[in-house]
Design goal:
This protein is mostly helical. It contains one helix and no strands. This is Oxidoreductase.
């Protein structure tokens, strides 16, 4: 059962890395790998914040 109370604080999900065949290699701006790196950086910030909240519990 999914919790919906105020205490529900799930760990953020990591972004899915693109497969090697998703990059065409033609230097697109932004490349799928550029987008993934941005999403990964955001995930790391959200994960660190989540971990800090878990330490306070």
């Amino acid at each position: 059962m999914l919790e919906t109370g105020d205490d529900f604080d799930p760990q953020p999900d990591a972004p899915q890395a693109p497969s090697d065949d998703m990059c065409c290699g033609s230097g697109c701006e932004p490349c799928v790998w550029d987008s993934y790196q941005i999403e990964l950086a955001d995930y790391r910030v959200r994960l660190a914040a989540w971990q800090a909240r878990q330490e306070r519990v």
